[in-house]
Amino acid sequence: MSAFPEVEKIVYEGPESKNLLAFHHYNPDEVVEGKTMREHLRFSVAYWHTMRGAGADPFGVGTAIRPWEGESDSVENALNRARVAFEFMEKLGVDFYCFHDRDVAPEGATLAESNSNLDQVVALLKEEQERTGIKLLWGTANLFSNPRYVHGAATSCNADAFAYASAQVKKAIEVTKELGGENYVFWGGREGYQNLYNTDLKREVDHLAAFMHLAVGYAKEIGFDGQFLFEPKPKEPTKHQYDFDSANCINFIRSYGLEEHIKLNIETNHATLAGHTMEHELEYAGSQGFLGSIDANTGDLLLGWDTDQFPTDIYLTTRCMLSILKYGGLVPGGINFDAKVRRESFEPVDLFHAHIGGMDAFARGLKIAAAIRAEGILDGFVTERYSSWDSGIGAEIEGGEASFASLEQYMLEKGDVEPNVSGRQEMLENLINTYL
Ligand code: XUL
Ligand code: CO
Predict the structure, then answer these.
(1) Please, which pLDDT band fits residue 419 given cuts at 50, 70 and 90?
(2) Helices 111-132 & 75-92, crossing angle to 10 degrees?
(3) What global pTM score does this model have?
(4) Is 313 noted as a catalytic residue in this protein?
């Protein structure tokens, strides 16, 4: 029985179509910059939002109508839900999905029971992957919902919480490998603190690094060769998360000798919570060689918390794609919609509208970014702006041939800095508008 009887397979109908259950820009096999859109974009559905989100907020219970959900949190219900997930993804035409261990299977009374529940669902996920060709972009473990993680997991003051989290991640890496997952994500759910009076910050950060070394070591031991990813977020649920932003995470990764093993999974709404733009975070990670994957969503600047809305802003997706193309794409990462429908959008069909909008926005961003790059005006402007570094004193400095003494001598002879070129920000903003 179909869970979405009213929805046909979503197809590309082109920009002129008025059908809102069709793609207007995402044309999976269309080639842009030498690769198909599906190869560039690698869209993924987030199981936790799309299959588990019910729309609860601090003021009220869930509102989502999900006729396939059973009464209890049983394995049987989880298996049925997994079949619905694959029907949804097949109809949507998405190539990947992502999950936390506890999204797909219920937690049992003991660790052994939880593992067994997970194994039963993973067997079905594997069958459904084989049937549909849909792949696992990344797996992860939920180390934040259960009260045992009240003080964090790897950064808990309680060593037993670290041990339990290790057992959970061990299993999550095993099932990610079993399902051919291309990446494994660490997002520090409660890895942070609320108050320094009760916190040994140094010890907690050391423990987080030790935890990641254990994970990397175990992956090697069992032959899991997916990419590990660390997901920055500055706050929520704790006041100070240890994975604040791209720069902070890269510092952590390098300081603890993890740079060979871990890249970043960058999320738009987390970037804005950190007081950055998404493109700043992408550019910073990309420029340092740490751009792994993205969690695509958007926040609401008037609300200011992690609202996880679907991205529909073409300026945003254009700027994301400019950075992603510049750094050679995301493979083996992808574009995971870590986004949820609004509480007021409670019908199953809203899940389709939400994902179609995000996919079309990114497809359009890809095409616009490729057009901007093809004409080369923006790149040309930047190259010209830095041209003083290409020869003369600039080239000497970059080449490591200058000293403070030689630079002093140079300036004594030259006299002063001549203003060279205007930043032309307004002209460039207008230029970008000519492509939209
Ligand atoms: C939370 C968040 C997570 C991670 C995976 O803000 O983004 O869902 O993406 O744990
Ligand atoms: Co995320």
Answers:
(1) confident
(2) 30
(3) 0.98
(4) no
